[in-house]
Amino acid sequence: MTLDAETVKKIARLARLKIDDQAIAGYSKNLTNILQLVEQMNAVSTDQVEPMAHPLDASQRLREDRVTEVNQREQFQSVAPQVQDGLYLVPKVIE
Question: Which of 24, 33, 64, 88 lies most in the core, judged by the most C-beta atoms within 10 Å?
Answer without folding.
Answer: 24
